[in-house]
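Morning run. Coffee first, then this:
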Amino acid sequence: MTAKRTPGERIIELCKTYSITREALAERSGLDRELIRRIEEEGHIPDLAPLLKISRALGVRLGTLLDDHEELGPVITRAGAAAQAARFITGGAKEETDLVDTAHQGHIFHALAADKGSRHMEPFIVDIKSGSEQPKSSHEGEEFMYVLEGAITVDYGKDSYTINAGDSIYYDSIVPHRVISERGGRILAVIYTPA
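And here it is:
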């Protein structure tokens, strides 16, 4: 079994393939060059917004930065399989033993269709740590969240919404938003980004 590549390693590979410098990627994506360096060299995992901006700047879908390989047919994720490996952890470091940046108490994203090729939706089960301190972000597309356990607060623009187990929320991702939880929670999140 080959080792999984980090999003930073995939970004380096894509930049090399397309002959794009870090400076050019920063300019195209509108991101700070230091943030891109941390993602590439330190395995830092920011929230979804910077990764979406980088994927757009490189002309690839978000899944290209997160996937190991692609399946053309249907992808089935059996019960419990998504919980076995975190595919994406905000604030995470490169080593699996040090996945969560304690400054952000990272959200842990378990991909449900990581190997599906040419997809436009990104479905995740997301474990939200209690007291998480995530900054607001915005990006193209739409998001749907269904709370499986606990309760979450969605700060959306100037408003805040409490979403309890069994509730759902659907919103435009271009509006600055964040998901936090005082007690912790688990959600099904589907993120759609236009092609």
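The two ends are 32 Å apart (CA to CA). Good start to the day.
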